[in-house]
Amino acid sequence: MTLWELAQVNVATPSAPLTSPELAWFTDALEAVNAVADAAPGFRWRLQTEDGDATALRVFDDDDDDMIINMSVWASLESLGDFVYRDPTHVAVLRQRRRSFPRMAEAHQTLWWVPVGYRPTVADAEERLSRLRDLGPTADAFTFQQPFPAPDAIDPALIDTGWLCRA
Fold first, then answer.
1. Residue 53 is part of which domain span?
2. Is 96 helix (H, G, I), strand (E, B) or coil?
3. Within its chain, how far is the Cα of 156 from the centroid?
4. Residue 33 clears pLDDT 90, i.e. is over it
5. 89 CB contacts (<8 Å, ≥6 apart)?
6. Number of domains in the chain
7. What is the DSSP string of 59-73?
8. Contact, 124 vs 69, CB < 8 A?
9. DSSP 8-state secondary structure symbol assigned to residue 138
């Protein structure tokens, strides 16, 4: 049994307000995508307000007030990957994202390991995304393309306890 779960964050800035007709395809799909995520094998938690999503949250003390966040925790890299890249409801949204979400100049998504039961904060997510942007993929903040194993899968002699102690 592992002592770790996988946290993920991704951010995006829509090309128009979420209430605009241009973003209706996205906002109309949110409830269904979130329901599929909530029921997916390996899903543990997602950031949300009482509205059931996180689109109303303003994050990252950024000049970009329109930036939206998606943050969740999963049992494993495989369970998150199955949802992101194999679930038809989610894949349909991914295929359309370029319509209304311009490519960001910096990394917009990162993954990191958290102790089982820990629920990351927006500040945690901002720190991990900044780390990825500054250092590239490391055991502290990585990507699907360059993943790192959970700490309990690593030889304990190789662990830098400085990052291991921070969730």
1. 4-164
2. helix
3. 27
4. yes
5. 29, 32, 33, 36
6. 1
7. -TT-S-TT-EEEEEE
8. no
9. B
Largest CA distance in the chain: 55
**3-state SS assignment for residue 140:** coil
Question: Could you tell me the CATH number of the domain that includes residue 17?
Answer: 3.30.70.100
**Residues 6 or more apart whose Cβ sits within 8 Å of residue 96:** 25, 26
48: three-class secondary structure by DSSP:
coil
Quote the CA–CA distance of 150 and 111 in Å, as a whole number: 11
**Pair of tokens at residue 18:** 């979420």
Query: What is the spatial distance between Cα 28 and Cα 136, in angstroms, rounded to a whole number?
Result: 34
Report which of residues 105 and 152 the model is more confident about: 105
**What is the distance between the alpha carbons of residues 17 and 15, in angstroms, rounded to a whole number?**
7
The tens digit of pLDDT for each residue in 54-104 reads 887 877 765 567 888 999 999 999 999 999 999 999 999 999 888 899 998
According to DSSP, the residues that pair with 46 across neighbouring strands are: 72
